[in-house]
Amino acid sequence: MRCAGVGDMKKPFPTISALALLAAVALLLAAAPAAAQNMPIPSVSLSIGEGSGEPGRVAVVMQLLLLLTVLSLAPAILMMVTSFTRIVVVLSILRHALGTQQMPANQIVIGLALFLTFFIMTPVWQKVNSDAIQPYLNEEISTQQAFEKASSPIRDFMMKQTREKDMELFIKVSGGQKPEKPADVALAALIPAFVISELKTAFQIGFLIYIPFLVIDMVVASILLSMGMMMLPPIMISLPFKLLLFVLVDGWYLIIGSLVQSFH
């Protein structure tokens, strides 16, 4: 007779352990529905006081929603009524004219445009702060008066940079009458007129910037074609010359100085 070894005695144990595990899982699944019935279900409710249906409280809620919407659009609105549009468009055209693709990076271009915008708009912000924000914080004027006093310096800045032709376009489209004085122009017509005027000015400056670099591209392309190097991209040869020209004439000084002086 062969005696059972240690290895033969260990074979039944995995089967017994698996059966015990399955039995425990079955008991847990059977007890889960009963426990779920006794467990309280959490609920979420949103209400504004007991009289949330009153017209006054509904008006307050609508005002809060409108305020949050305006705050979410505030960065875009501030960019549209400042010098940011012209600066960022000119810097983007300069980058394409140089042919450096993504150099400087978008973050550098936008950051430089923002700091130049802060520098140019500093007198306007100081006037807004002294005439509107500080009196309003000291409870010397009402909200409506603060808005009118704050929009006045910004309106004056936009009026100086807006072409009369663009302003007449939006006044005509809106169906309004020609205002007797600049202060009578509605912001709804002044802001888009200011934006398209800034875009036109930016493209004019960009065209002047593009010309010398375009001449270099044409000269390099003509030389390569005359030498029979038709498979060599001209941008590879013209890029170093364009960078050299830009550095020799101190291009950043000229362009940034011209941009800042164009608002004065």
Radius of gyration: 35 Å
Q: Span from first to last CA?
A: 113 Å
Question: How do the SSEs run, as a string of H and E?
Answer: HHHHHHHHHH
The number of helices is 10
The protein's oligomeric status is: single chain
Q: Fraction of residues in helices?
A: over 70%
The dominant shape is: elongated
Low-pLDDT segments, ≥5 res: 1-16, 27-37, 41-53
Helix/strand structural class = mainly alpha
Strand content: under 5%
Main sheet: strands, sense, barrel: none
Number of strands: 0
Mean pLDDT: 75
Textual characterization of the structure:
There is one protein chain. With 264 residues, the protein is an all-alpha fold. Helix content is 76%, strand content 0%. It contains 10 helices and no strands. Helix 4 (84-98) packs parallel to helix 8 and helix 8 (187-226) packs across helix 9 (234-248). The longest helix is centred in the last third of the chain and has 40 residues, at 187-226. Residues 1-16, 27-37 and 41-53 have low confidence and may be disordered.
